[in-house]
Structure formats: C-alpha cells, structure tokens
Amino acid sequence: MASDWIDVSVTLKTGMVTWPGDPPVRISHAQSMERGDASTVSLLEMGAHTGTHMDAPAHFVRGGTGIGDIPLDASIGPARVIPIRDRTSIEPDELEGHSIRRGERVLFKTHNSDHVWDTDRFVEEFVYISEAAAQYLAERQVRLVGADYLSVGGFHADGVKIHQTLLNAGIWIIEGLNLKQVPPGEVDLVCLPLKILGGDGAPARALVRPLDRAAGEVR
C-alpha cells in the first residue's frame, strides 16, 4: 500500500544511549498540568547528535555548511537500503557488488540493526564505515550515507578522518537509523533535521517506504 511508511528513527528518552562524552539525554517538564500549571511544557536537554540525527559539514569541517542550510533534496527522495554481511566494518570489496552510482542515497543495513537499539548501554563493537569505504563512497560521489548506529566511524577507528572524507566530498550523513524492519532494496526516504542556525548537526525524524523493485511501485 502507498501508505506503508516505516519509521526508522529511534525514540528520544531520558537515559538513552549516547556517544561516549556527549551530553546525557534528560527530558523533563518545565511546566506541568499535573503540578497545577495551565499547560505542560517539556524541557529537552541533549546534544545535537542524539539518537537519529544528521551531521552537517560544520561538524568536522572548519567553516563547513551548517545543518540549517542543508539542501532539502539531500535527504528526501529515492534511496537504497544496502545489506552488509561483514560484522566488523563496511569495506570496498563488499560495496563493489552493489554497483553504487553517483548521486545515490545509500542506507547501510548491518548487524547493528539486529541488536544495538535493544539496550541503553553503548555498544563499542558496532559495524562502521572503514576509511577505505569512505574514500570509495567519496569517489563515487554519492549524495547521502545512512548508518544504523551512532556514528559512521567506529569507536576504535579514526572516526574523524572517516567523517571528514565523507563531508568534504559533499556527502550528507544520517546516523542512528534503526533499519531492523526494512528489507534491502529501493525505498523512498524522508529525513528532516531540526533547522538550527549554523548547527553542526541535529536530531531528525527519518521514514522510508519500500518499493517493489520489479514494478517500481510502493508495496
């Protein structure tokens, strides 16, 4: 059915997992009808890179574009969910078999989506994009890359270099996707980060709608 959108965002909540060193997430009530106030007003305390979020070039590139200036077509439009078998890292030799094209939006579905969002404890050994794969994607001039945990770079890898390789190539990044319920293949993608002036990143709501690859229609 044409309405079969899948929410691939993670739910924001107090105490949820964050990247080590990032601000913890606290959601409280500045005003509450339960306390006698006329309305309920939530107070959100979190880093810009909490849960499902997008990275802007300003995150790792001095003078880079802020998240408030993201082109709308960067994260809205056709995309492809690419399954990754390697349980350590995404490598060029595995990507070769998927014939990634210039301008594609690619979302990597790895072993992460099977388990990392089941706990509020940070998972150190998650599948990430290797430096070589980041360079591979940059050379193919993809439009956007999506990762199914909190970073495209590994906890024990050079995450700075991996981010810089992608962002310097003009590739926009979604991190913190949960693709567990999404089959590999073509999808429609809608992912909109909060519009923060000069922001290095922002939380986002991300939705995908699988397509019938044979008919080219929504199923």
TrEMBL record:
InterPro entries, per database record: KFase/CYL, KFase_sf
Pfam families named among the record's database cross-references: Cyclase (PF04199)
Superkingdom of the source species: Archaea
Protein's recorded name: Cyclase family protein
Species name: Methanoculleus frigidifontis
